[in-house]
């Protein structure tokens, strides 16, 4: 072990300028399919196009693993570290360590509070929640529901983003509850975003409160769990359900009329923007960006690129396909072919 | 065979001690056994009753026909996995991979159905075969290579998680729309008339088996169950089964005009058949006897000429195959697979179901019905907590406390057994 | 009596790690005879029997049945050759009842289903023939049996099968007076009906009462295998405790160190 | 005491069999023991070496000073929990709650530090006390009420998950900025000179203990280790320790001007002290002896007058307290607590570490060093896989396979033990 | 000899579930005497000893030490009263070595640390005094010992403590000729130095060779407790097998059903 050590310490100094290398840590693969199916792909494409070496890994929701991966990337000689933190604490520990080692950092998709990364690239998660809330309001209005009981299937209690989503949709729904326009129904968080548990939880909600008229599900998986339960009572389509992530399953549910909306986040744009910043950092340049976000703990501004999420309903499912996020082949299988045609998807 | 030794003029051991034939005496004897601590499934049942009453008081809807049906469909996957784990636990082994193995088998089913458009029976068969293969590999590594089952199945736990992720293309959900698969644990019901016919057939068959056995024993001069006890047992089965079928045949739909929800959920029939099958295997065949022997004293079993390695491999095969069944049920219930299928607490709930039911982690002690009772207990807790609608933190803490309470009822009532010197 | 032994082992060596327990042991068993295997505590009697029964793999040595060389790798092999053994450490399954233990590995069936009725009846009769009067029910778990009752179950299990060779490792150690008499009578009866029987015992009276031949192990070596009528009580005791007696037994050299860790 | 029986004129049992005093003969004897299957820690070490070489070839940076230091800090929390679990496993019990217990204790620490602004030592003490309390409750439920430890700790697993959620206010996370806490497993290093002094003291103490024991045994006429073997042992400790300290004292910072990263991570010292302490307790005190006795044969221990209940309770206390230590380390490393602290695979990795090291799940067999070795194995796998940079699904599958490989080396090399009749 | 027994139980009843194993048993042990406890297999001897040792809780009955009533709930209580027992099912810890087993629960210490050296030396001497010559090392695990060696370790463990009452449940069952003689001598020596000794054995020669008093259990009832000099060999055998002999023993009524499941 001792033989290599002086080589590596001297080698590190030069590697910073010589070979740029970018480390990316994704958070997990189970709470949302996007990280492995979309982000990894788009980031890799962007780095490959620029001819920059990149190491993209996934912490699988385990923050010990998250830190280990960060350690290993720094050990491996990464010059830029791009993280999607699992929580701000470990995120900050990783960013601090990286900074002390002279590694540039980017917060991708989630802001690390107090972390002080060079850049922040993201969608606005509270905005995602707001879109969900507004979508549900619209669908309920379309159905002409009177004093509907609304159930909320929140994301994992251990996921900070789930809290942000909830802040978003509650900001829309709370006034309606308060004014008596809507009736607040059961409001439960689903551990680990687990779809199987979500089904049981929603089934029990429906048993306890049979007159639920609207479901705010935090993502497409939870939405699908609720739809499965509703189908047994043939209530699917009558009770609007929301979602997020524009998954194939979610879009199909929308086409079938079982789901009222989902939120599409143009991951490709986000990935491209982040990759551009990382590549410039790796090359030792500091690129100027327009936006900024104030870190609530340090009160400092973090230079940011913020993208806007889009609400998807039956009318604009087509946009998602056109964007290349979901392929028509995947979406328009079997029974859905006809519905695709009807929605103008080729 | 025993011509050498049966030359004695002494009476057989049992002679003169033939227990009384009356029901009253039988009940008295049973009472003494219970007081002495030999209670069988009684404590688990007691815990179950306590819980049901508790939840029923807190949320009256707990006792509705809808919720009764929910209970079955919600608990089915865990019960299936737990039944397989009973076999593994009977040998003092453990299968940590059962949860994700069920996920992998479920994913195989879903992929074959949706991406390869195979008919449902081919896909189901493939899922089951996947389970068999997984079990065989685990069994070989444990029995032939000699790695402790904890380590092998911990590796499996990790590896299958990865395989599952790869099968579902790194995190997408695969929807399953096949109506037969969906019928299993989602929307399949037995027509009410069929349920009644099946129940009657079951009760008759049960009575016939018991009566034939009794007749055979009396003919050979052995102690037999009193007739009255058999009547009581058959009666109990008929009454409990009858009530359950009656309730499940009530209309559960909120909108009977649109859709009628009546009848015993299909999954109940499937699990009942499997439970009867495995109970038969464990208690009436030489193979089952050998499982108990290997679990009780592996060396004694080996000396008795039992092929211990084969038994060890076979239980892992049964364990993983039942995990596959659990996976199929889970897919049916969720109408989809995702990387969490079989993950989260599925494994711990399944092992917990078997253990709470009374199966020992040290081998040699356990029955299939344990898994069913323990699984019912877990399902009731989950179901009841769902009705309470509390926040996640409180729900976890409360679930733990309720579990402890149910197990405590069991433990306290078994203490007398220890005091009486029976363990 | 018979010229070729029914079962014979030659030059058996067996070590546990660095400790050599059996050293070039020859041992022959003849049909129609009771061979007593005697030796001090720790001499290697049980180890020899376990090697014959396929419980322990042997390090080297040959194994013949009716003069034919055979290999025995597991208890199943031994059972197939018609060798039935009651081990000193009885090895019963505590979680099974008496009937289940007695028929373990050789259950009677009706098609797929176990024939419990026949097994229960046979077990009851066999136990009765061994003078067991205090067992309450043959459906009792063996965990709840007294020491002597357990031993009786193990013996009953072995004699149920009518095997060609029956080996009993200290079968009467825990038995009462009447039961001991029954077992000794059974041993004699087995030999008289042509079986080859081996009896391990520390009780010289029992040994001389039933055996035709006596084999003495001393510190892992076979000191002598002789006709019971050719030796006296005192000679056998000497063979057991010192390894030789007059011209019988081991050569006087090195007897003290054969069994220790060699330096 | 034994005046009654020591009236014989025979020589003591060992007389005339005193093993040879030379190193060569000792080595021969050791060789025979190894061939006979009595290999101690050898297979686990072998697995470790195989893995290290494999990763080192695939990724040369694996052998850098930085990565060597990473290994320690990454594996520390699991090793701490695993050391406590060894005690629980030695009794044939299990503690499924250890992971989340560590999370709860970590959360207590964080809450006291950040919300109540208490000094770090009070907070650490409170976290440890929380561990003691948790262990006592589990122990009482297991030993006095008689609920199987699997069920009690499964309930704990659920309940503590809930408590943790409540402590961190349903999902937010609490940052810890206290420099002392952060030093534990985040940025604390021993000054290089101190490391050398400590190492020398350790080696001298070790040599002194061995030599004193040898002298004592020779005086009483008992078999003693040859001097050459002691020199060899002391030498090995000095060389291995020396190399480790030397490497860890190299500069690891990529930017030495900004921050210097040299010296043995503080957590290494902490764990080493704890490991020595527990090893001493297990192997040199009556309490440790009683743990083995209760784990080997509970009834025999009871008959020998050992207070079995007290031993059973105490191991759960040790287990949970070590979980608290693990929690403190985890908090230090993450600079924060969140509802997942101690969750994910922490529990399975910790139990896996103990079991791979050679601790039996059935009790009576295991050492503290097992947890350290097994934990090192798990840490190396995790660390090496981190360097490989593969996608999530493949990483899981591969981690499982590597784990199996390491355990397989162990199992195959132990097979001879079984063949030689030693198990 | 002495008027008050050192240890006495009166009216002991003990059931396992529906099976009553001991029925109103009175039993007294006197200092300086060897009391033999005899009875058929399954008569309840071991159960009685386990009740005295605190292993099994008794259903009803009284327990006196030196005439004073005491309560015994656990083996620790019994040990504190100076009662040391070798059980028939030896109960050694297979994962510990001989020395560790012999000192289990009463380890010698130097401060906190175990005094291994003293323990090893004492164990070696004690085993040597029991004629054990084939044990290779006192640091061997008891799992690897032969049947007789295990039994010797258990006996050595019990006599190491110089307790007032020593109860041996079939101690010589697995022992060789020389070892049996040593143990019987030891039993006599213990009694002669004022200890109260109970010996359970099925071997009448041994019983008559060392005992002062004989107590016979029959189907869970105490048939008789008499001076050894007052009875003959044949009488004792009759007491064991039939529960009475002449005017000794149980009243003739109901003896056949006392131990069965009552209808
Ligand atoms: N598994 C083992 N590992 C190590 N040594 C063993 C093992 N089994 C037996 N031995 C040793 O081998 C020797 C012979 O043991 P064995 O059980 O064959 O003796 P035995 O003649 O049957 O004695 P006994 O009359 O006491 O039953 C003993 O010294 C014993 O310690
Ligand atoms: N735990 C138990 N549960 C049920 N019955 C038991 C239990 N222990 C012992 N018995 C029964 O109690 C009776 C007496 O057993 P015990 O062991 O005391 O006999 P014993 O006189 O020591 O016989 P032996 O001479 O064979 O050792 C036996 O019939 C036995 O089956
Ligand atoms: Mg023997
Ligand atoms: Mg007895």
Compose a concise summary of this entry.
The complex is a heteropentamer, with one copy of chain A (346 residues), two copies of chain B (423 residues) and two copies of chain C (263 residues). With 346 residues, chain A is of the alpha/beta class. Chain A has 13 helices and twelve strands.
Q: Tell me what the CATH architecture of the largest domain in chain C is.
A: 3-Layer(aba) Sandwich
Count all strands of chain C and give the number.
Answer: 14
CATH architecture of the domain at 46-188 and 265-412 in chain B: Orthogonal Bundle
Main β-sheet description of chain B: 2 strands, antiparallel
Helix content range of chain C: 25-40%
Strand order of the largest sheet of chain C: 6-9-10-3-11-12
Total count of strands of chain B: 2
InterPro entries (chains C, E): AAA+_ATPase (IPR003593), ABC_carbohydrate_import_ATPase (IPR050107), ABC_transporter-like_ATP-bd (IPR003439), P-loop_NTPase (IPR027417)
Domain ABC transporter (chains C, E): 7-244
GO molecular function, one term (chains C, E): ATP binding
Protein name (chains C, E): Sugar ABC transporter ATP-binding protein
